């Protein structure tokens, strides 16, 4: 997934939701493939959301810290 296709949301109850989607069109517009992924994590109460940041490496590894 490219960074433009990834969405990260932290809700008020400390639930971190990471979702991504991407559509690939076949050669000569002959069909397409839609990929989607969603992960959800409940964070501990001691996590300070204002100090969190997300980065994506060149090889597509997403890090949230």
UniProtKB/TrEMBL annotation:
Instruction: Name the InterPro entries for this protein.
Output: A-crystallin/Hsp20_dom (IPR002068), HSP20-like_chaperone (IPR008978)
Extent of the signal sequence: none
Pfam family of the protein (one): HSP20
Q: Which PROSITE patterns match?
A: SHSP (PS01031)
* Ranges where the SHSP domain occurs: 1-65
Family that this chain belongs to: Belongs to the small heat shock protein (HSP20) family.
Q: What is this protein called?
A: Hsp21
Species assigned in the record: Brachionus ibericus
Q: According to the entry, what is the taxonomic lineage of the organism?
A: Eukaryota, Metazoa, Spiralia, Gnathifera, Rotifera
